[in-house]
Amino acid sequence: MTDTPRKPSETRWDPLQYQRFEAERDRAAQDLLARLPADLHPREIWDLGCGAGQHAIQLKRRRPEARVHGLDSSAAMLEQARTAGPDVDWRLGDLADWRPELLADLIFANASLQWVPDHATLFPRLAQALTPGGVIAVQMPMAHESLQHTLMRETAGAGPWAGLLTGVGTIRPLLSADVYYDLLARECAHVDIWSTRYLHVLGGPDPVLEWMKGTALRPYLTALQGDAAIREAFLSALGARLAEAFPARPDGATLLPFPRLFLVARRR
Question: Which domains does the chain have, with CATH numbers?
Answer without folding.
Answer: 8-267 (3.40.50.150)
